[in-house]
Amino acid sequence: DTAVSQTPKYLVTQMGNDKSIKCEQNLGHDTMYWYKQDSKKFLKIMFSYNNKELIINETVPNRFSPKSPDKAHLNLHINSLELGDSAVYFCASSHLTGYTFGSGTRLTVV
Amino acid sequence: GENVEQHPSTLSVQEGDSAVIKCTYSDSASNYFPWYKQELGKRPQLIIDIRSNVGEKKDQRIAVTLNKTAKHFSLHITETQPEDSAVYFCAASIETGGGNKLTFGTGTQLKVEL
To answer: Which residues of B touch A (CB under 8 A)?
Structure first.
């Protein structure tokens, strides 16, 4: 049983398209996150939800919109994709402290 | 906000040698310091963590030390093996009841050579 699962694993799309990435966790954690890992491997937080409520919203373009229908799910929708959005996007969840990461979604915008 | 610096960016050691990775943080309120290992194409995985009420923690070949006064913490891997080759990230955060925002260092590519 995968603890934090993301779909899709790979996503190749053209500039200007809209796409979504889904994340689900079965750990019973209260908090979920989206992180972006760029080509230099730098991990930067984008959003965090605690019990379906947005608690962290870093300086991310408003083309990125997270949605948490319940505390086990956190999806990421991206509008008008740009070349610079190409990266690996990791979902994670936590209860109090250490994160459990999903396997990542490699997004390539062409 | 918190800023975490990590050194070195790359580290090559011979199998059996020790490896040390160092991080500094800027926010004196940070009280939780995890380390993650990320193998190529895989997710980051928590390998060890330390809280600010503790100065050192060990788990088999891995140890972390924390100096709150100087605001730096280190990862020590002894008797390195080829399977230790990966990117290692340090991170810092302030623990709260509603989750915590981890600020990551820039990563260290460790290569263990035979």
So the answer is: 32, 34, 38, 42-46, 49, 87, 89, 93, 95, 97-104, 106-107
